[in-house]
Design brief:
Layout (H helix, E strand, L loop, with lengths): L25 H22 L11 H16 L5 H15 L5 E4 L10 E2 L2 E5 L3 E6 L9 E5 L2 E2 H10 L8 H7 L18 E4 L5 E2 L6 E2 L2 H10 L8 E6 L2 E5 L7 H16 L1 H4 L4 E5 L9 H11 L1 H11 L4 E5 L2 H17 L2 H19 L4 E4 L25 E5 L6 H9 L5 E5 L8 E8 L5 E11 L13 E2 L7 H11 L2
Parallel strand pairs: 11-12, 12-15, 15-16, 16-19
Antiparallel strand pairs: 1-18, 2-9, 3-4, 5-6, 5-7, 7-8, 10-11, 13-14, 13-18, 17-18
C-alpha cells in the first residue's frame, strides 16, 4: 500500500478561517510578502521530507536560494499582484511540484486580468490555439515576441514564476500563461509578436491587451486538454470502451462511480476480453489517491497478477516519512477522515504511518522508515498462476495530459507494467522523490505552505523523470473526437 495516497492536500495546522482582511498599503503588501516567504521557508525546513535527506545534500542550499530569491522579490512588492508573484518566484526556484507556497482565496480579481484576444498552446513549439475574430489565425506558429524567441520568452515570463521548465509536460501545461496578464510587476508582457502561417507567410502585429473574458478562460482549459467526461465508463463505438478518470481526489459520487466501473469489468469480464480497445482518459487528472487507478487496474488485468508485478517493480523501494509534529498530526487527521468516509483500507494505512512517525519521534529519529513493501518480489512475476483470471491482452490506450503528475504518474507506472498499454497525447510532468503532501496555513491567512511528508529511496521512476507518449497527438485541437480518430486509426 505504499502508493495508496500519492498526494493528500489537506490543511492541518489551523481550522478553516474566513477570508482575512487584505493589506491596504504598498508597505503592508511588502511586509506580508516578506513575512509569508520567511514563514513558508521555516515550515518547509521543519517538516519537508527532503530537509534532512542524506541522499540529497544539495537540498538545503536550494531551499536557501529559493528563500533569497523570494525575499528579493518581496522587497519590491507594492500590491496584490506583486505579493502573488513574489511567492511564485520562491516556489518556482524550489522547482518541485510538491513544495512551495500557494495563495489562498482570490487575491487577484478576475476582472483585472488581461489577454490579447488569443490563447497559445505548446505542441513541441508555440502555436495559436484559439483566437477572436481579427486575431492571429488558429494554428499559426508564434515565432517570437519583442525580438525574443518564443521558447526564451516562456522561460523568462512563465517558468521563472510558475511551472518547471525542465519537465517536458510542463511546456504543454504552462505555455497558455504567456498571454495572460495578471499584473506581475517583475515581467514585461509581449507587445508585438511574429506569427507564421502554414503557407509560409509572416505577420508582426501589435498586441491589443484587454480585459480577459470567459471565452478566454474556456479556451485556456482546452489548450491543455481539459476533462470532457465525468468519472465513468462509456462505449462510444461498439466494443471500444472509454474509461474517464479525470480526478483521483473523488467526491462521494465519483467514488461510487469508480467502484461501479471496476465492478462492471469484473462482472462482464468476458465481454471486455473481446474489446477492440480500452481507452483510459486521464485528462483533467492532477493526482490524488492511487487507490482508484489500482482498483480499476486490478479488475482489468487481475488483482493478484497486478500485485505480483507491482511488488517486483517496487522491490527495492523504501519509503521514509519525516518525523515532525506537524506531519504526525496530518496522518492522525487522515485516519479520522477515513473513519468518517468508511474507507477501512485507507484508515489502516494512515494509522500505520501515524504510529510509525510517533515511534520515530519517541526514539529521536528524523524519519520513520517504512519497509513493509520492500523485497517482496517473487520469482517470475510475469508468469500467470493458478487462480488468475484469463489474461487481458486487448489494446489499452492511456490519454496523458502534460500536467499528469503524482498519483496520475503512479497510474502510468501501473498501467505500463502490462505490454498491451500505450500512452497517447503529451509528455507527462514529473515528480521528485518527495511525495505525500499536506498544506499548512501561514500566519497572515493569505497563503499556505505545501509540505511533502515522505521520500522514496530506490524508486524505479527517477527524480524528474517524465513519460513520453508512445503515440503523440500534436494537433492544436485536443478534444475527445481527435483522440477517438487517432486511436481508431491504430487498428487499421
Amino acid at each position: 500500500m505504499k502508493r495508496l495516497l500519492a498526494i493528500a492536500l489537506v490543511a492541518t495546522a489551523t481550522a478553516a478561517q474566513a477570508q482575512p482582511d487584505l493589506p491596504t498599503t504598498p508597505a503592508a503588501w511588502r511586509d506580508a510578502a516578506l513575512r509569508d516567504i520567511a514563514a513558508g521557508y521555516q515550515v518547509t525546513l521543519d517538516n519537508h521530507a527532503g530537509a534532512l535527506d542524506p541522499h540529497n545534500p544539495g537540498f538545503l542550499a536550494n531551499l536557501e536560494a529559493a528563500r533569497e530569491r523570494g525575499l528579493a522579490l518581496a522587497r519590491q512588492v507594492k500590491d496584490a499582484p506583486g505579493y502573488v508573484a513574489a511567492l511564485q518566484g520562491f516556489t518556482a526556484r524550489i522547482n518541485d511540484g510538491h513544495a512551495g507556497i500557494a495563495t489562498k482565496g482570490k487575491l487577484l480579481a478576475p476582472d483585472a486580468q488581461r489577454w490579447p484576444g488569443f490563447v497559445a498552446a505548446w505542441r513541441e513549439d508555440l502555436y495559436v490555439y484559439a483566437s477572436e475574430p481579427g486575431g492571429p489565425p488558429v494554428g499559426a506558429r508564434i515565432v517570437s515576441c519583442d525580438g525574443k524567441p518564443a521558447k526564451r520568452l516562456l522561460e523568462d515570463n512563465v517558468f521563472a514564476f510558475e511551472g518547471r521548465g525542465n519537465e517536458a509536460g510542463q511546456w504543454w501545461t504552462s505555455a497558455r500563461e504567456l498571454f495572460v496578464d495578471r499584473g506581475n510587476p517583475f515581467i514585461q508582457v509581449p507587445r508585438r509578436c511574429v506569427f507564421a502561417t502554414t503557407d509560409g507567410k509572416q505577420a508582426e502585429p501589435a498586441l491589443d491587451w484587454r480585459p480577459r473574458t470567459e471565452q478566454a478562460r474556456e479556451w485556456s482549459g482546452g489548450a491543455v486538454g481539459m476533462a470532457e467526461l465525468p468519472v465513468g465508463l462509456t462505449e462510444p463505438r461498439p466494443n471500444l470502451f472509454w474509461v474517464a478518470m479525470p480526478t483521483f481526489k473523488p467526491n462521494d459520487g465519483e467514488r461510487a462511480a469508480y467502484r461501479a466501473m471496476a465492478e462492471r469489468v469484473r462482472q462482464d469480464r468476458a465481454r471486455f476480453l473481446q474489446a477492440a480497445a480500452i481507452v483510459i482518459d486521464l485528462r483533467g487528472n492532477h493526482g490524488g489517491a492511487s487507490m482508484w487507478s489500482e482498483e480499476f487496474a486490478g479488475a482489468l488485468w487481475g488483482e493478484a497478477r497486478l500485485q505480483r508485478r507491482r511488488d517486483a517493480y517496487d522491490a527495492n523501494t523504501v519509503t521514509w516519512y519525516r518525523a515532525s509534529p506537524g506531519n504526525l498530526a496530518h496522518f492522525r487527521m487522515l485516519e479520522q477522515r477515513f473513519v468518517q468516509q468508511g474507507e477501512k483500507k485507507a484508515q489502516a494505512w494512515a494509522a500505520a504511518r501515524a504510529a510509525g512517525i510517533a515511534a520515530a519521534q519517541a526514539a529521536g529519529q528524523p524519519y520513520y522508515i517504512d519497509r513493509e513493501d520492500a523485497a517482496r518480489a517473487t520469482a517470475d512475476p510475469q508468469a500467470d498462476r493458478p487462480g488468475d483470471p484469463p489474461p487481458f491482452t486487448r489494446p489499452v490506450y492511456v490519454i496523458v495530459p502534460g500536467y499528469c503528475a503524482s498519483a496520475c504518474l503512479d497510474a502510468l507506472d501501473m498501467f505500463k507494467l502490462f505490454p498491451n498499454t500505450r500512452l497517447v497525447g503529451a509528455p507527462s510532468s514529473a515528480d521528485s522523490t518527495y511525495m505525500e503532501v499536506r498544506s499548512q496555513d501561514l500566519p497572515g491567512g493569505l497563503a499556505r505552505t505545501i509540505v511533502p511528508t515522505k521520500l522514496y529511496v530506490g524508486r524505479p521512476r527517477g527524480n524528474g523523470q517524465v513519460y513520453q507518449p508512445d503515440i503523440a497527438l500534436r494537433s492544436v485541437e485536443w478534444g475527445t473526437a481527435e483522440f477517438l480518430r487517432l486511436i481508431e486509426a491504430q487498428g487499421k
